[in-house]
Design brief:
The complex is a heterodimer of chains A (344) and B (136). With 344 residues, chain A is an all-alpha fold. Chain A is 80% helix and 0% strand. Chain A is built from 12 helices and no strands. Chain A has helices spanning 5-37, 41-78, 89-93, 97-125, 133-160, 171-174, 180-189, 193-217, 228-259, 267-273, 276-301, 304-342. Chain B is built from 3 helices and 7 strands; from the N terminus they run αββαββββαβ. The radius of gyration of chain B is 22 Å and the shape is elongated. Chain B has helices at residues 6-22, 60-70, 116-125; strands at residues 45-49, 54-57, 74-80, 87-89, 94-97, 110-113, 129-131. Helices cover 28% and strands 22% of the residues of chain B. Chain B has a 4-stranded antiparallel beta sheet with strand order 2-1-3-4, with helices on one face. In chain B, strands 6-5-7 form a 3-stranded antiparallel beta sheet, covered by helices on one side. With 136 residues, chain B is of the alpha+beta class. Classes of the chains: A mainly alpha (344), B alpha+beta (136). At the A-B interface, helix 8, helix 10, helix 11 and helix 12 of A face helix 1 and helix 2 of B.
């Protein structure tokens, strides 16, 4: 176990959130069952009062869990000097590869669900009759389980990483010729795959920004537009495709360019050598997830009084999506232009 | 479209412009040109390219991975004798792969020697084997 301020924070946050989600998850399940059985306005008002504390504490726990994703990588980064052979986060991930990989997949999933739930919660708070309360409590129960798994995983990982472990780092995995990020696009796009991948990223990203802009401009978020859910679902699906293209193009094309290391394809090294790329990634993730949050809000939030507030609320979400995606794109362009014309 | 969030828009854009400019990586003097890691001079490898530029690497592993990509452009490869620390031509060096790791992050086990006796001694002591010059 490596003890420093970050790992202690991770363990503390993990313990605290694991305990609170057990209580919060079970409470929200009980409240959900009662909510479903309640028929009168008085009963619902009583349950609403009772759920106030549960929701307040769970909102705080979930907000902390959102921060724990970047904190996770910050902590792994802080371990580099204690792991022999690690020159970036990749090396640290090789100490407990199975568990770390599991957490690396779980964290973005949880981030998305937590964000989606918080968006739904804040929509419900704008209403007077809390029409989404039942759905919110049910989703919170499911979310609590996911957060518990993540918190337990964090604690196990922090305890399990032993200082002085000898590992191989990214060079021996991310740069080999038969890496999947090379062979997969190469099998589809041919030997010039890197060039096509670059173009594909620009096309899909600009298309996504354009489509979000069009949805905002053409008032496709109004309740009167019957195919709204279909359009938002398609946008979310397209944002996921764009996400895959983004990751592939970053690994194969843009990260080596930004690092000035043409044969090195490690994203963890990119964060280390070009720290502002972290902000670019954050903007991209928030932009992509905002598109998804718009869809999930429409999916779960179109109930009663909340339906009337939905168009205005969705506009806000998609405005953020538009801004974040555009900002991440601008950052990448600035890097590429500077690399190409100024620093050369 | 952005009447409500003009401030946020401007803030994000100025931030991205500022960081995009500030964050540019400047060339680092003692870093490997393959993976950016700090070079220990005793294990370094140097390529002189046909256009006169020099590329430096932290280990035989990184250098040989780059060599396969840069083969047509490389004019000369220089390696460092582990005993004396002097630069020698790769074609004049002796290469031994042994159980001793020189650069942990890529588990490089290939050692470079300027003369056969030193190489042979290392080979016997650390269960090594002769390997061919990787830069030919």
């Amino acid at each position: 176990m490596i003890l420093n301020a970050l790992s202690i924070s991770m363990i503390f946050i993990g313990l605290l959130s694991a305990l609170l989600v057990i209580w919060g998850g079970s409470s929200s399940l009980i409240l959900y069952k009662k909510w479903e059985k309640s028929s009168t306005q008085e009963e619902r008002a009583f349950l609403e009062d009772r759920s106030y504390l549960v929701l307040l504490i769970m909102v705080i726990v979930l907000l902390i869990r959102l921060i724990s994703w970047p904190l996770f990588y910050g902590t792994l980064q802080s371990f580099i000097h204690d792991i022999e052979g690690a020159m970036c986060i990749f090396g640290v991930t090789q100490v407990k590869p199975g568990l770390t990989l599991f957490l690396e997949y779980l964290k973005p999933i949880n981030f998305f669900f937590i964000g989606g739930w918080l968006v739904l919660h804040s929509l419900d708070r704008l209403t007077k009759t809390a029409p989404i309360m039942g759905m919110k409590l049910l989703l919170l129960t499911v979310l609590s389980l996911l957060v518990f798994i993540e918190s337990a995983g964090d604690i196990l990982l922090m305890i399990g990483i032993k200082p002085g472990t000898l590992v191989s780092c990214c060079t021996t995995v991310t740069d080999i010729l038969d890496r999947p990020t090379r062979t997969t696009p190469e099998s589809i796009l041919g030997p010039q795959y890197a060039e096509y991948l670059k173009i594909l990223y620009f096309v899909t990203h600009l298309l996504l920004i354009g489509m979000v802009g069009l949805v905002l401009k053409l008032k496709k978020l109004e309740n009167t537009f019957s195919r709204r859910r279909g359009v938002l679902g398609f946008l979310f699906f397209f944002a996921l495709i764009n996400g895959i293209v983004f990751v592939l193009s970053q690994i194969e094309v843009f990260a080596p360019l930004m690092m000035h290391l043409p044969f090195h394809h490690c994203l963890y090294c990119l964060w280390q050598y070009v720290p502002d790329s972290i902000l670019m990634y954050l903007l991209f993730i928030l932009g992509t997830f905002s598109v998804g949050w718009g869809f999930t809000t429409d999916l779960f939030g179109k109930i009663g009084e909340a339906s009337d507030l939905l168009p205005k609320y969705l506009r806000k979400i998609y405005r953020f999506a538009f801004l974040f995606l555009l900002a991440s794109f601008v950052m990448l362009i600035i890097h590429l232009v500077l690399d190409q014309y100024v620093l050369e | 479209m952005f009447s409500n969030s003009k401030g946020i828009t401007l803030l994000i854009f100025f931030l991205t412009l500022f960081l995009g400019c500030k964050g540019e990586r400047e060339p680092l003097p003692d870093r490997c040109d393959y993976d950016g890691v700090k070079i220990e001079k005793i294990y370094a490898v140097y390529f002189t390219l046909k256009d006169g530029k020099e590329k430096k690497f932290c280990s035989i592993v990184c250098a040989s991975m780059s060599f396969s990509e840069l083969k047509g452009k490389v004019k000369e490869v220089m390696v460092v004798d582990e005993i004396s620390g002097k630069r020698i031509k790769a074609s004049h060096a002796f290469f031994v792969e042994s159980e001793v790791i020189t650069v942990p992050h890529n588990k490089n086990r290939i050692h470079v020697f300027g003369n056969r006796e030193d190489a042979s001694r290392h080979l016997k002591r650390f269960k090594g084997r002769w390997v061919e010059n990787p830069f030919q």
